[in-house]
Amino acid sequence: MNINKLIKMKGKEKIVMITAYDTPSAKIAEKAGVDIILVGDSLGNNVLGYSNTIPVTMEEMLIHLRAVRRGAPNSFIVADMPFLSYGHSEEEAIKNAGLFLKNGANAVKLEGGKIFGPLIKKMISIGIPVMGHLGLTPQSINVFGGYKVQGKSRISKEYLIENAIELEKNGIFSLVLEMVTEEVAKEISEKLAIPTIGIGAGRYCDGQVLVFHDIVGLNPDFQPKFSKQYANTFKVMLEAIENYKNDVKNEKFPTEDNIFRGDQ
């Protein structure tokens, strides 16, 4: 997969993106044949135990990016730029984005609208592909006042459409729309020549992205409306660990098959 192929998929074939954070999940994603793997800063919520994405650091992102690349050596990988890794200065932002490419990413994703236009243009000019992200931008939850659907009001709708168009002009190769009303996501998708990838943005985006942990049911306490659980691996793994515990307690493990002898 590459950027040209992704853009050509618009209107012809839906793009499948999955957010993964480690080698095992990346191996599964690549084996399943997804189009894009996103190493999201949502690893803060799903792996590191943070309440949101704000605390996630560049160092943490790089560790998980390298793990994903080892698990999916042939996949197209996008890395999220975490909070405060861009926006402070152009020089620092470009350095951080470059680190992602040096450590296995094919592109970076950053949240925000046309205010980042000059930075996006600069990144692209030196060979750093950029994916955009509008709608609910989790790094801005303190501004939004929580996780709220975007595009409901006329002002919100106009903001999203205007900024989507500007981001495309600035050179992004695709745009994530998160928790945007289906009507607005459809209008944006029709106006852009680049693909849109939705998460909680309805049926008319050019692709969809979900978190690995949500798809396979690793977090039974979090089942958002916009997601779909295709398995309950939390239950499967819980039963496996409980069976192991019981076998050890009842001296059923290890058995003859699990030991080594001096004459072997």
For the structure shown, list the relevant keywords:
11 helices, eight-stranded parallel β-barrel, TIM Barrel, 41% helix, 264 residues, alpha/beta, 8 strands
Please give a structural write-up.
- The mean pLDDT is 94.
- Helix 2 packs across helix 4 and helix 8 packs parallel to helix 9.
- This protein has one domain: Alpha-Beta Barrel (TIM Barrel).
- It is α/β, with parallel strands linked by helices and 264 residues long.
- The protein is built from 11 helices and 8 strands.
- The radius of gyration is 21 Å and the shape is globular.
- An 8-stranded parallel beta barrel has the order 1-2-3-4-5-6-7-8, surrounded by 6 helices.
Count every helix, treating DSSP H or I runs of 4 or more residues as helices.
11
| Strand percent estimate | 5-15%
Radius of gyration: 21 Å
Please give the share of residues in helix: 40-55%
Shape: globular
Into how many domains do the coordinates divide?
1
CATH class: Alpha Beta
Q: Give the class from helix and strand content and strand pairing.
A: alpha/beta
Compute the average pLDDT.
Answer: 94
CATH superfamily annotation: Phosphoenolpyruvate-binding domains
CATH architecture: Alpha-Beta Barrel
Physical arrangement of strands within the biggest beta sheet: 1-2-3-4-5-6-7-8
Summed up, what is this model?
The protein is an alpha/beta fold and 264 residues long. The protein has helices spanning 3-8, 23-32, 43-46, 58-71, 90-102, 117-125, 141-144, 154-170, 182-191, 212-215, 233-249, and strands spanning 15-19, 36-39, 77-80, 107-109, 130-135, 174-178, 196-199, 207-211.
